[in-house]
C-alpha cells in the first residue's frame, strides 16, 4: 500500500468551554424570564408530588382493571368456545383486550397531568398577584 492511498488520520473533536455560561443550580422549576425563589421551589415540589400521586394512582387503577379483565376471562370458560380465525376468543381477549384499556388510562393520565401543570403555571405567573 503506498502512502498516498492511506486514509487521513483520525482527529478527536471536543467541545470548547471558552464560551459557555455556567448557571447556579436551582431547585425546582422556574418560568422563563423569572428568577427562582423559595415560593417557586415550594410550588414545583407540589407539582412533582401531584404528578407522582397521579402516576401511582393511574398505575394502580390500571393494574386493578387488568386483573379484573383477566379474572373475567378466566371465570368465563364459555369465552373459549367461540373461535375466530381458528383462535379461541379468550386468547384474542388476552392478546388484544388490554390495548383499549392502556389507551384509556394513557388519555386520563395525559389530561390530568396537563391540568396539574396548568394549575402550577397559574400559581407561578407573576401577573396574577393583584
Automatic annotation (TrEMBL):
Regions that span the bilayer: 54-79, 91-112
Superkingdom, taxonomy of origin: Bacteria
Q: Which terms are listed as keywords in the entry?
A: Membrane, Transmembrane, Transmembrane helix
- Protein name according to UniProt: Heavy metal transporter
| Species this chain originates from | Microbacterium phycohabitans
Amino acid at each position: 500500500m503506498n502512502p498516498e492511498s492511506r486514509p487521513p488520520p483520525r482527529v478527536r473533536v471536543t467541545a470548547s468551554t471558552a464560551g459557555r455560561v455556567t448557571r447556579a443550580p436551582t431547585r425546582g422549576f422556574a418560568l422563563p424570564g423569572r428568577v427562582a425563589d423559595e415560593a417557586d421551589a415550594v410550588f414545583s415540589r407540589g407539582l412533582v408530588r401531584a404528578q407522582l400521586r397521579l402516576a401511582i394512582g393511574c398505575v394502580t387503577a390500571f393494574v386493578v382493571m387488568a386483573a379484573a379483565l383477566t379474572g373475567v376471562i378466566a371465570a368465563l370458560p364459555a369465552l373459549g368456545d367461540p373461535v375466530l380465525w381458528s383462535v379461541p376468543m379468550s386468547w384474542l381477549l388476552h392478546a388484544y383486550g388490554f390495548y383499549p384499556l392502556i389507551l384509556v388510562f394513557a388519555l386520563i393520565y395525559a389530561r390530568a397531568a396537563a391540568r396539574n401543570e396548568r394549575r402550577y403555571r397559574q400559581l407561578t405567573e407573576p401577573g396574577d398577584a393583584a
